[in-house]
């Protein structure tokens, strides 16, 4: 028993921690229950940390499994901990006590009670009749009551299922008499299996269902700790500095169990394995050991039933029973109580964590797996599944069987089950006899390409590895490598060797060289951040494809070229895109990701033609959701969320971005792009705090993947929300990195990522007005040359703020009024509202309160119609509220004294820090300025406000 350390709320448990505190406040008792590893102890530690922060005494009792067989073990440990707590918290240094009862808390115990407690703690010999149970009960109760005399006490019993029966009886009595100042948290991991498990009977249960509980729990104080959602697993991985790009797969493997998820994440980090090997790696090391521990508690009959369920594609109680497990329902019900599976009303079975069926299959011997597949092949009602089971039941290659499996793969593809089609295509290749070498190689190529269509990187790598180890022709080797590259997603940095070999093998094959150059064009921009080189590769790919009469590859290459032309500020971008679109319309490609059609929509987004872009996406999305690939759906949903984040409805933006993330995590793809979309959606219609969190996650995932494009985008999203929140120093640092990234990548077109106006505003807020004006002067001619009208409007808003900082408030107000009106006519309500908030700030500086209030009211109406909740709250902050210095926020200080209107945002921020007691050095550190700059700025502040000391400054700033 020890004092718990201070802990913050565990990832994803803020709401549950609040429920725990409410239960303790209302009843003084709370029971945390759930499967092993789900995070119950972490939650209890967080509550203990909060109690300690309030000055409460915390007692932590963690009985071991062996304690359950020792009468009084837990009660004795509690007494010992009370003694240690009293001794350590007493006045002066604590002297080592010769025994537990030497502690002062026991001095007031009557003789019989003291003797009974001494016997319990083995500090007195146990009489022949044992300790006096009544005296011991009263003694324990008196000890706990005396402990609360010094203040509130929180008792945490971590592992209440290990408390022995005698201790449970003693503690129940003591807690029944305890005052309200003693609150208790019990942590329980249910034990569903008994030693006397019998398939036809309910699992072992004590006659008293509350035998080991310290009170009779009710619905009000029992809190089930659920598994984490996929997004929370991603946050958990980031918190532990583990790779987050695999969050979706890790969530599936762990079922949301934090302990399992961290074990899998650490396996990935320790092995430093490429993304393609991740599926196999989840079975290794500590992760597999944890899965075995969970499965090992199940009786042998239950494990045998679970193995059949693990082998089936669509397991159900009926299917498993027909396959030879007559007690399937009882076995599966027991497994459900253990948290291993969940059973639906129709009897279908779902394992709670993907590691569990994988471990069952991996640890079973070949004979067990073969017998299971053979049994399932006889009872499944789907011919595709039957063929799969028959193929997996034999280890003898058979051409007739391989042909059946290949036909089943075609059927699965036509049904739209791309994942099953990919698995069957590889199984067909592996079932092909060695004497049919050429046919096996053909099927391996087909399997790799089928895996690429299904985004199954692990299967693509398996097929390619098998093929590359054989005597395959160069064309087949290229096709297999291209399939692997197509499943790499954003993570292309570790695949240089794959590109080199593909180039070598495509020598002399124009069609394949075009395909390789196309992949290189994508790599050059994503992984290398080199749009010039990407454009060159795309141009070559398009020319090669056109010479071979391959319109599909030519259209894709021209699309990449058009994207690079736009980024580089070339006027040819639209003409190239039109060529790609014409080829694409004639070819009717299967997918739309990276296609000219979607790039046309994104160009409309960049140009501010948002209603047009939304309408085109709205017509395309249902078709893609019915027949397209997962990556196509993700691309459309993210783009739609980006559009709605600018024009509304912002609630729809949140929904579409959330769907994009869910699909991303389910498919095991990098979550960086989806988190970026969510950051934009949260900034528009959710929460600025959540937006910053998603943007930070996107930054980390993009860095892990080496994705230069989305690294810039996610940093832009982060810097923007930091600026909105008023964290100007952090925003300036982040946006400067965006500036460096974009310039390093030679990106010229300012409409593709509108960071310039945000950086200018951040510079202005840090009193770097000259630098802000220089930046605006640099970007404006480019935007005018390219016709980027909405970029020019953003520059106008930032320039108006520069005018206001120079004291030219009349010009600033006039420019902001025109800018807001222009944003409204362009169909950009959120930008209009932001300009109106800036106008309100300028009007306050002009001491035109009515005009300022009118601008804020109009902004609020604009935000309300668009569903922009956080912006609506920002516009609703009245001057008296003193909302802070953030761009768009209302400042109560500015209205407290007219003279304050002469201060810039940076000067106001410094003045507040100084008035809060910060020294010049401390203020310089917080504002990222030099001490000399702080001294000079303070001098200007004193002159403007006509004050001569910090005390007078504080008086001037007081509303």
Automatic annotation (TrEMBL):
InterPro entries: AAA_16, P-loop_NTPase, Sig_transdc_resp-reg_C-effctor, TPR-like_helical_dom_sf, Tscrpt_reg_LuxR_C, WH-like_DNA-bd_sf
Recorded superkingdom: Bacteria
UniProt KW Kinase keyword: no
Keyword line: ATP-binding, Nucleotide-binding
Segments forming domain HTH luxR-type: 896-959
Name recorded for this polypeptide: AAA family ATPase
Species classification: Bacteria, Bacillati, Actinomycetota, Actinomycetes, Kitasatosporales
């Amino acid at each position: 028993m020890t004092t718990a350390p201070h802990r913050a709320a565990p990832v994803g448990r803020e709401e549950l921690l609040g429920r725990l505190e409410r239960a303790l406040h209302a009843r003084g008792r709370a029971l945390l229950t759930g499967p092993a590893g789900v995070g119950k102890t972490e939650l209890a530690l967080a509550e203990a940390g909060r109690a300690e922060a309030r000055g409460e005494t915390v007692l932590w009792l963690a009985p071991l499994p062996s304690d359950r067989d020792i009468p009084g073990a837990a009660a004795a440990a509690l007494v010992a901990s009370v003694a240690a707590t009293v001794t350590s918290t007493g006045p002066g240094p604590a002297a080592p006590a010769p025994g537990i009862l030497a502690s002062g808390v026991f001095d007031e115990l009557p003789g019989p009670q003291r003797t009974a407690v001494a016997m319990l703690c083995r500090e007195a010999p146990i009489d022949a009749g044992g300790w006096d149970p009544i005296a011991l009960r009263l003694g324990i109760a008196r000890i706990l009551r005396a402990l609360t005399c010094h203040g509130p006490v929180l008792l945490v019993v971590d592992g209440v299922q290990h408390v022995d029966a005698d201790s449970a009886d003693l503690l129940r009595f003591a807690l029944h008499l305890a005052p309200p100042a003693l609150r208790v948290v019990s942590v329980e991991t249910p034990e569903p299996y008994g030693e006397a498990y019998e398939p036809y009977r309910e699992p072992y249960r004590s006659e008293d269902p509350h035998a080991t509980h310290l009170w009779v729990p009710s619905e009000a104080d029992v809190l089930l700790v659920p598994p984490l959602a996929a997004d929370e697993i991603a946050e958990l991985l980031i918190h532990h500095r583990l790779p987050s790009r695999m969050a979706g797969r890790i969530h599936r493997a762990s079922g949301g169990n934090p302990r399992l998820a961290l074990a899998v994440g650490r396996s990935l980090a320790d092995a430093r394995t490429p993304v393609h090997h991740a599926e196999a790696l989840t079975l290794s090391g500590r992760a597999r050991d944890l899965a075995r521990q969970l499965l090992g508690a199940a009786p042998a009959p239950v494990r045998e039933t679970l193995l059949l369920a693990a082998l089936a594609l669509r397991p159900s109680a009926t299917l498993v029973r027909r396959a030879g497990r007559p007690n399937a329902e009882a076995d599966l019900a027991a497994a459900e109580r253990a948290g291993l599976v969940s059973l639906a009303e129709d009897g279908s079975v779902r394992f709670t964590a993907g590691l569990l069926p994988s471990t069952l299959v991996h640890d079973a011997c070949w004979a067990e797996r073969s017998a299971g597949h053979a049994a399932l092949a006889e009872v499944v009602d789907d011919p595709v599944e039957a063929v799969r089971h028959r193929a997996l039941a034999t280890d003898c290659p058979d051409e007739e069987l391989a042909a059946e499996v290949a036909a089943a793969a075609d059927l699965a593809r036509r049904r739209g089950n791309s994942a099953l089609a990919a698995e069957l295509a590889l199984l067909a290749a592996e079932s092909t006899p060695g004497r049919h070498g050429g046919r096996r190689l053909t099927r391996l190529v087909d399997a790799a390409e089928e895996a690429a269509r299904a985004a199954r990187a692990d299967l693509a790598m398996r097929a390619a590895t098998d093929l590359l180890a054989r005597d395959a022709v160069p064309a087949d080797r290229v096709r297999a490598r291209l399939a692997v590259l197509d499943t790499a997603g954003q993570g292309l940095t570790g695949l240089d060797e794959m590109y080199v070999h593909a180039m070598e093998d495509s020598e002399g094959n124009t069609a394949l060289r075009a395909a390789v150059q196309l992949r290189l064009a994508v790599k050059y921009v994503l992984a290398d951040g080199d749009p010039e080189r990407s454009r060159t590769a795309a141009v070559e790919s398009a020319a090669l494809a056109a010479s071979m009469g391959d319109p599909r590859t030519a259209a894709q290459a021209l699309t990449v070229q058009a994207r690079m032309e736009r980024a580089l500020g070339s006027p040819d971008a639209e003409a190239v895109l039109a060529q790609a679109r014409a080829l694409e319309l004639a070819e009717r490609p299967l997918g739309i990701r990276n296609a000219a059609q979607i790039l046309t929509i994104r160009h409309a987004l960049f140009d501010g033609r948002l209603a047009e872009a939304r309408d085109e996406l709205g017509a395309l999305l249902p078709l893609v959701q019915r027949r397209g690939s997962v990556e196509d759906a993700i691309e459309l949903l993210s783009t739609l969320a980006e559009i709605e984040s600018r024009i509304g409805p912002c609630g729809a933006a949140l929904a579409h971005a959330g769907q994009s993330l869910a699909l991303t995590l389910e498919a095991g793809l990098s979550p960086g792009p989806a988190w970026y979309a969510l950051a934009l959606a949260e900034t528009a219609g959710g929460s600025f705090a959540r937006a910053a969190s998603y943007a930070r996650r996107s930054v980390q995932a993009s860095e892990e993947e080496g994705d230069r494009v989305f690294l810039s985008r996610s940093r832009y999203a982060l810097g923007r929300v930091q600026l909105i929140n008023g964290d100007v120093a952090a925003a300036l640092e982040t946006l400067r990195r965006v500036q460096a990234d974009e310039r390093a990548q030679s990106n010229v077109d300012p409409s593709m990522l509108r960071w310039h106006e945000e950086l200018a505003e951040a510079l202005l807020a840090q009193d770097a007005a000259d630098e802000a004006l220089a930046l605006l002067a640099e970007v404006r001619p480019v935007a005018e040359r390219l016709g980027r009208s909405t970029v020019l409007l953003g520059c106008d808003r930032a320039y108006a703020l520069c005018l206001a900082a120079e004291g030219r408030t009349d010009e600033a107000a006039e420019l902001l009024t025109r800018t807001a009106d222009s944003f409204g006519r362009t169909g950009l309500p959120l930008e209009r509202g932001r300009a109106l908030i800036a106008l309100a700030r300028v009007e306050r500086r002009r001491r035109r309160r009515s005009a300022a209030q009118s601008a804020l009211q109009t902004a609020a109406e604009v935000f309300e119609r668009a569903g922009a909740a956080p912006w609506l709250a920002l516009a609703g902050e009245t001057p008296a509220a003193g909302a802070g210095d953030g761009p768009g926020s209302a400042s109560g200080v500015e209205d407290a004294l007219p003279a304050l209107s002469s201060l810039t945002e940076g000067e106001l921020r410094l003045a507040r820090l100084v008035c809060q007691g910060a020294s010049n050095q401390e203020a310089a550190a917080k504002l990222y300025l030099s001490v000399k700059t702080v001294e000079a700025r303070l001098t200007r502040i004193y002159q403007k406000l006509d004050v001569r000391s910090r005390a007078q400054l504080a008086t001037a700033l007081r509303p």
